[in-house]
Backbone:
């Protein structure tokens, strides 16, 4: 396994990000601003020696990866295991709507974030398991030194919980088109080099997620 640096990328903005609606597995596309974010990001990644590119197959992620791939001369490899959390009946709703319409379910979810399974959706533990499986498969198949993975805020954060000792997913949030870079040490341990970096956006606004699993701040 020659991979030494992994760059996790959150997709660009969608209209549902603007309205704080939980997207889950719904195939919401990038909006115009999100497309601009992805193109700024692609310009930055073109100069860092990226050798392989992986992505969730959801549209907002795949579009972001396609823009990056075109700039870097790479074809994104899509993997459904890198999808955002499936939030079942709550998809398309805001946090306030879920709390109002499903108060008992929301209370159970809020009391046990990792293991509570949203009706017709997933628990965070289930998301983490499939994300770890995908990550291990990428490590096993790729000999490139530097790779990028375009995935979603909840999925990346629960994966980082599994990779980085002491990582707190509820305190470390990700914004649209942000970059979080990991380096593998000589002993095989992963270390965060930079988290939620948006300097490449050069003034373009980037929003925090309000996905299931996040806290409002």
Residues:
């Amino acid at each position: 396994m020659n991979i030494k640096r992994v760059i996790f990328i959150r997709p660009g903005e969608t209209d549902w990000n603007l309205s704080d609606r939980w997207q889950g597995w719904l195939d919401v596309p990038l909006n115009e601003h999100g497309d601009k974010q992805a193109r700024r990001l692609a310009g930055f990644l073109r100069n860092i020696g990226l050798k392989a590119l992986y992505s969730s197959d959801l549209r907002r992620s795949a579009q972001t990866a396609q823009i990056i791939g075109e700039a870097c001369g790479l074809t994104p490899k899509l993997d459904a295991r890198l999808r955002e959390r499936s939030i079942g009946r709550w998809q398309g709703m805001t946090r306030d709507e879920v709390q109002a319409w499903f108060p008992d379910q929301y209370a159970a979810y809020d009391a046990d974030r990792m293991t509570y399974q949203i009706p017709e959706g997933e628990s965070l533990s289930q998301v983490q398991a499939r994300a770890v499986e995908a990550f291990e498969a990428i490590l096993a198949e790729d000999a490139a030194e530097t790779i990028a993975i375009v995935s979603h805020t909840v999925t990346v954060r629960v994966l980082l919980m599994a990779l980085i000792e002491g990582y707190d997913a509820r305190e470390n949030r990700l914004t649209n088109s942000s970059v979080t870079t990991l380096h593998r040490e000589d002993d095989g341990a992963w270390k965060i080099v930079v988290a939620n970096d948006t300097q490449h956006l050069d003034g373009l606004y980037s929003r925090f997620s309000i996905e299931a699993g996040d806290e409002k701040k």
